[in-house]
Amino acid sequence: MTEIHQTAGRDNLGKFAPEFAHFNDDILFGENWANDDISQKTRSIITISVFIGRGLVDSSLKAHLEIGKKNGITRKEIAAIITHAAFYAGWPVAWGAFRLPKEVWNENESAEDEKSAYANSMIFPIGESNDAFAKYFTGKSYLAEVTKAPFPIHNVTFEPGVINHWHEHKATKGGGQMLIAVGGRGYVQLEGQDPVELLPGDSFFVPANTKHWHGAAPDSWFSHLAFMVPGEGQENVWYEPVDEDFYKNLK
């Protein structure tokens, strides 16, 4: 079961109606919402639709819109959900409901919608923010574990215009890194050579002890699988950022 900690009942009615608060926090959310028979996103869509169908377009609906956003509903999807519900719940109700998602999904969140659309275009997950290596990237990147030991493979995703710094995968024997493009458009460049464009299905081997960089094209998301070739004395060494003007002129 998904672990959900809800305190709204106790925060607002804990002293006045403790039994109601218990049912809200522990049963409705702690058990029913936590059940994994259907996804959290699906539960949010059902709940929002029921609220609109009953004409409930107040702060309680806004609270569930915020939960739905956290559960992965995009701005495009919520607009489609309310538009569809309008034919069954009534046009005036939908008009009244739309003011709330406009607050929750504000106009500055188109980037999040783009991320969701890009994620849906791939068979591999984007994963979580690549915070551990953030200082070696020019912007936001993401990391998803595809396989575990003994042969770890990760999907690395770069937002548009994001690349990593020059670096080497050192090894005293064997080693090197294989990149397999799985989404968007990107580049890889070995020191002293021209950049190579990578599209889904392309692969590129980076030899050990070779200075290089890789990442997204200036105008595109990009994802590649990355795995290290077994070797001895392996170590990653990071260097300076790629020249910004050179990178921006890549087509």
Question: Would you write up a description of this structure?
Answer:
By secondary structure, the protein is an alpha+beta fold. It has two domains: 38-109, AhpD-like, CATH 1.20.1290; 128-248, Jelly Rolls. 37% of the residues lie in helices and 24% in strands. It is built from eight helices and 13 strands. A six-stranded antiparallel sheet has the order 1-2-3-11-6-9, with no helix packed on it. It has a three-stranded antiparallel sheet with strand order 8-7-10, with no helix packed on it. Strands 4-13 form a two-stranded antiparallel ribbon. The mean pLDDT is 92.
Summarize the structure.
The protein has 251 residues and is α+β, with helices and mostly antiparallel strands. The chain has helices at residues 8-13, 18-33, 40-53, 59-70, 75-89, 91-104, 110-120, 244-248, and strands at 128-129, 141-147, 153-158, 167-170, 173-174, 177-184, 186-190, 196-198, 203-206, 212-216, 222-228, 231-232, 235-238.
Could you give the topology of this structure?
Blueprint: H1 8-13, H2 18-33, H3 40-53, H4 59-70, H5 75-89, H6 91-104, H7 110-120, E1 128-129, E2 141-147, E3 153-158, E4 167-170, E5 173-174, E6 177-184, E7 186-190, E8 196-198, E9 203-206, E10 212-216, E11 222-228, E12 231-232, E13 235-238, H8 244-248
